């Protein structure tokens, strides 16, 4: 079982779509093991988006995710990152298929509605930025045999 970090960005919170997005991930059979609403500091945002630091859109990324509360989550499941990325859809809204989270709820790339780790290594790095070890609750899933 692997883990994936996801973050619902301020636009999702503002549009009252948090429950809809969480529901899609739960319905897939993924296990929610970390959840919190928070305001991200500019320092956290810069650490999170460090790989984009030299790109022209870096300032917009930092500005957007610090503009309001986000919902930070950790999901667990078999090949979790791959599954979450399929549910989330392509980064560019015009390329995101209908039925995916971005395909259904996102219009502008710079106002993307959700972040999802792109690899197991990034998931572990990102989880450490936003969660303390004791905030991850890896509970026993009695219904896991049905998925």
Describe the structure.
The relative contact order is 0.25. The protein is globular and about 45 Å long. With 147 residues, the chain is of the alpha+beta class. The protein has seven helices and four strands, in the order E-H-H-E-H-H-E-H-H-E-H. A four-stranded antiparallel beta sheet has the order 2-3-1-4. Helix content is 38%, strand content 18%.
Gyration radius, rounded:
15 Å
- Counting helices, strands and paired strands, the structural category is alpha+beta
Q: Please, what is the oligomeric state?
A: single chain
Fraction in helix: 25-40%
Order of strands, main sheet, comes to 2-3-1-4
Largest sheet: 4 strands, antiparallel
Question: Strand share of the residues?
Answer: 15-25%
Distance between the termini: 13 Å
Shape: globular
- Whole-number average pLDDT? 94
Q: How many distinct beta strands?
A: 4
Q: What are the segments in which pLDDT stays under 50 over at least 5 consecutive residues?
A: none
User: How many DSSP helices?
Assistant: 7
H/E topology pattern:
EHHEHHEHHEH
Question: How do the helices and strands line up, and which of them pair or pack?
Answer:
Elements: E1 2-8, H1 10-14, H2 18-28, E2 31-38, H3 42-48, H4 58-65, E3 70-77, H5 80-88, H6 101-105, E4 114-116, H7 120-130
Antiparallel strand pairs: 1-3, 1-4, 2-3
Feature tags:
single chain, 147 residues, 7 helices, alpha+beta, 4-stranded antiparallel sheet
């Amino acid at each position: 079982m692997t883990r994936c970090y996801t973050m619902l960005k301020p636009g999702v919170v503002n549009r009252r779509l948090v429950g809809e997005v969480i529901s899609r991930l739960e319905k897939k059979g993924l296990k929610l093991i970390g959840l919190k609403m928070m305001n991200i500091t500019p320092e956290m945002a810069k650490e999170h988006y460090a790989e984009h630091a030299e790109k022209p859109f870096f300032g917009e990324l930092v500005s957007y995710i610090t503009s309001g509360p986000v919902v930070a989550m950790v999901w667990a499941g078999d090949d979790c990152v791959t599954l979450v990325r399929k549910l989330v859809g392509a980064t560019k809204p015009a390329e995101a298929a209908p039925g995916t989270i971005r395909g259904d709820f996102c219009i502008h790339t710079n106002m993307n509605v959700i972040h999802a780790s792109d690899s197991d290594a990034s998931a572990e790095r990102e989880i450490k930025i936003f969660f303390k070890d004791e905030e991850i609750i890896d509970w026993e899933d009695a219904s896991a045999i049905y998925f």
